[in-house]
Amino acid sequence: MIGTDVVRRNENFLQVVRSYYQLTKPRIIPLLLITTAASMWIASEGEVDSFRLFITLLGGTLAAASAQVMNCIYDRDIDYEMLRTRARPIPSGRVQSRHALIFALVLAVISFSLFLVYINLLSGLLAMSGIAFYMLVYTHFLKRNTPQNIVIGGAAGSIPPLVGWAAVTGDLSWAPWILFAIIFLWTPPHFWALALMIKDDYAQVNVPMMPVIEGEESTVRQIWWYTLLVIPCTFLLVYPVGASGWLYGVMALFLGAIFIKKTWLLKQNPLDKDMAKSLFKFSILYLMLLCTAMVVDSLPFTHQLFTAMVNFVG
């Protein structure tokens, strides 16, 4: 493999810490934690135990970090070939693959131990299944072999809400699976918008992302259809499940309308990378605000306010 391990040393301790921190791809993790937290708030009906929340988010952070480090090890060859990623810790030689693997395993062990000791076995097993699915199914089998890689592989990023729900209740009901479905259907529009922006990079290293194999127009059509699927799915939390209420429903409608508009504009201009970038950025904001609405909607204060408003009008 190209760029397996380049011999180069960090200059000081802080640079070593920074290199290992970069291996975890920290910018990806907050979005996973937001979906975990939202699930916990809904499951606890707005009254989350702070210690349980802290341990669950810490364990989730370590599990996600472990998966990203393993991904960096596996993809070190294509990271070396792309100028955009050649400066990453492993292809640049600042971290050796064997050391990165030890780091990833330590993170996974600590994560599972935290869940097992302080939360419950189910949440720990779900967190570990996220790592396994991301590495074995997405990174190993799908990423380099099929343009549908992110569709199936998106299940890995959909697991955090299951972890959060299990951490509160010890089991899984319909609501966390709807949260799973929302993120699963949200992932293709989100990731393919990014893929449209960096299509040439994927083509350079022969990674069969959708825009590379089927072109921009086909990719944008599929982004459109997945957007039309995810928006109705968000309302299932309101009806028939009843896990969220009116405030979340209004926010889901508002955000969904903007999402559809941005996707429609991209559909009319599939070669416009600025529109793809706009959709990509909004997709992140969409999920963050949607989860925030879930949290606020679950709070007892919100329910009391709604009841007071109904009584006042009545």
Automatic annotation (TrEMBL):
Location, primary (coarse class): membrane
Note: Carbon 2 of the heme B porphyrin ring is defined according to the Fischer nomenclature.
Keyword Lipid metabolism: no
Cellular component terms per the entry's GO annotation: plasma membrane
Similarity field: Belongs to the UbiA prenyltransferase family. Protoheme IX farnesyltransferase subfamily.
InterPro entries, sorted: Protohaem_IX_farnesylTrfase, UbiA_prenyltransferase, UbiA_prenylTrfase_CS, UbiA_sf
Entry's localization field: Cell inner membrane; Cell membrane
Transmembrane segments: 28-44, 50-74, 100-119, 125-142, 149-168, 174-198, 219-239, 245-266, 278-296
Source species taxonomy: Bacteria, Bacillati, Cyanobacteriota, Cyanophyceae, Oscillatoriophycideae
UniProt catalytic activity: heme b + (2E,6E)-farnesyl diphosphate + H2O = Fe(II)-heme o + diphosphate
GO biological process, one term: heme O biosynthetic process
Protein name: Protoheme IX farnesyltransferase
